[in-house]
Every structure is written in C-alpha cells, then in structure tokens.
Amino acid sequence: MIELIGTNAGLVWNALNEGGRTSVKDLKKVTKIKAEKDLYAAFGWLAKEGKLAFEEVDGDIFVSLI
Length: 66
What we know:
- This protein has helices spanning 2-19, 24-31, 36-48, and strands at residues 22-23, 52-57, 60-65.
- A three-stranded antiparallel beta sheet has the order 1-3-2.
- The N and C termini lie far apart (26 Å).
- The protein is of the alpha+beta class.
C-alpha cells in the first residue's frame, strides 16, 4: 500500500509540476488515479513533505506545488 501511495504521489507531483494549479477533479482525470481515497492519500504524502498548497474557490478545491 505504501508503494502505491508513493507512486500516486509522484503522479500528482508531476501533473502539478507540468500544469500548475489544478482542481482536484481535473487532477484525478490527469493522473488517472481511479479511487478518490488513493488520490487523497497521495495528497497526504505530499502535504506531509510540505510540497502542496490547497485553496478553495467557489466550492472547488485547487492544489498547487509550493
């Protein structure tokens, strides 16, 4: 499970590095991570490392690299 979270964290990081600030909804599509729990686990991994910023705009959550 830890390996899957790390792999997904890499997918998220790469998508944000290439595309910049992205909504959670679009990030799920871009990374092709199917389960929301897997996406949020990847967010937790990167957030713990101090690499993510989150922002809520009109009910949508956006994620970006710090």
